[in-house]
Write a structure and sequence with these properties.
417 residues, alpha/beta, Rossmann fold, 2 domains, seven-stranded mixed beta sheet, five-stranded parallel beta sheet, globular
């Protein structure tokens, strides 16, 4: 059964604005299924029919590009010249929302002769949030926090055991109703295909399977941290002491193009006084299940190791915040300065409004988290940046409420866009 995606509204807006939309994201995140709900005709490319469609494109281009529109071209990157053909076609055709291009790799975008700017707009689909999967009740919305609406004092129905399970299962549409063991097997197959096949389809280069696995393991151990490339190289030395930073950067670039990793960049606000802001991004996978699979974690293992659980819980929260923020026209960042003050997430909307979030699983950490949020807010030059719309702690605890100091506490299992 199809589960509605929050990106549906954004995709509708894009189709009403641009002549074509490129819907990108990792394999199996639901790009094709989502696109099919908007398309009126389609072409599904795969390695077996690629040559046939290449011939059609050369000999009968009008048939390849024929209406009705929107026309879905699935996995367009198998024939890279499609991008330029579409760009040229929409230049000479009236209307909007003519084509939807889906793809699981950004590599071929570099091979196109034209960017498609103003004609083909890119939109990223991530795996499902807890709200989309039906796990979050959605009784508190991110939009309400930005609107300064009161947070209701309510109890979440999502348990700590549930969070552990959702970290392992991830937000993959086909796995939503799977058991944990089924999800683990599915993700193991996903990762095997990634390191043995998918990574070598991105370019003419060949990537070493063992080195790829080792890099993924290192990234998984450093989930939600600001680890430098050198620390990852130090991890690799046990396998191969010859790995250079250029080599590592190449591997990371490929994983980024396959939408496997998605670093969290630093927020650079105007401050009241001069403070050096650290620019190292936070390390995250596009879904926490990738890292948990690499480290062979299970929900029971997480429940016995709350240090690891806390890092992966933060990864779960960041995934959901990115999805919710995008629907509202915003982006998620992190903040850390030379004094050691660190804020797990800062969400800034396109209209300039912003809010700050600390991610803490347990209530024993709330006082310290709230103090840091308030200290952070005091550092911001509000004459230029405006006052924060909200300060919040996203938790794994039971209740949503507002503290006496004004800081909101919201279980991630109650949040929506």
């Amino acid at each position: 059964m199809y589960k509605h995606r929050l990106l549906e509204k954004t995709l509708t807006e894009y189709l009403n604005t641009f002549k074509a939309v490129a819907l990108v994201g990792p394999k199996f995140c639901g790009k094709t299924t989502l696109s099919e709900r908007f398309s009126k005709s389609s072409i599904y490319l795969n390695p077996l029919n690629k040559k046939d469609y290449m011939t059609m494109l050369q000999l009968n281009k009008s048939e390849f590009l024929s209406s009705p529109y929107p026309k879905l071209i699935d996995e367009w990157q198998l024939i890279p010249e499609i991008w330029d053909v579409i760009r040229h076609e929409v230049d000479h055709k009236e209307g909007r929302g003519l084509f939807i291009l889906t793809g699981s790799s950004a590599a071929n975008l570099e091979e196109t002769a034209h960017s498609g700017a103003g004609r083909i707009s890119r939109l990223t689909l991530r795996p499902m949030s807890l709200y989309e999967s039906g796990a979050s009740s959605g009784e508190v919305s991110l939009q309400s926090l930005f609107s300064n609406s009161a947070v209701p004092y309510k109890k979440s129905s999502v348990s700590i055991e549930d969070y552990a399970t959702w970290i392992i299962k991830g937000g993959w549409p086909e796995s939503i109703d799977d058991t944990e063991q089924q999800s683990i097997r599915r993700m193991q197959s996903y990762m095997d295909a990634l390191v043995k096949e998918d990574i070598n389809k991105v370019s003419s280069k060949k990537y070493n399977e063992n080195r790829t696995r080792k890099i993924l393991e290192s990234l998984a151990r450093y989930t939600a941290s600001e680890t430098t490339n050198q620390k990852i190289i130090d991890d690799l030395n046990s396998l191969d002491s010859s790995t250079s930073e250029n080599t590592l950067v190449d591997y990371l670039d490929v994983l980024n193009k396959l939408y496997i990793i998605e670093d969290l960049n630093t927020w650079n606000p105007n401050l009241r006084s001069k403070t050096v802001i650290r620019s190292t991004p936070g390390r995250f996978f596009i879904d926490p299940s990738i890292g948990s699979t690499v480290l062979k974690l299970t929900s029971s293992k997480l429940l016995k190791d709350f240090e690891t659980f806390g890092l992966f819980f933060e990864a779960l929260v960041i995934r959901d915040l990115r999805i919710y923020a995008e629907v509202l026209g915003g982006e998620v960042y992190r903040y850390k300065d030379k004094t050691g003050l660190e804020i797990d997430a800062v969400i800034q909307l396109h209209d300039g409004r912003w809010g700050a979030i600390q991610v803490k699983m347990g209530s024993h950490l709330f006082d310290d988290a709230a103090d840091k949020l308030k200290k952070f807010a005091e550092k911001i030059d509000t004459k230029k940046m405006g006052n924060p719309s909200f300060l919040s702690i996203i938790s794994a605890t039971e209740y949503a409420y507002q503290r006496e100091d004004g800081v909101y506490v919201v279980p991630i299992g109650m949040l929506k866009h």
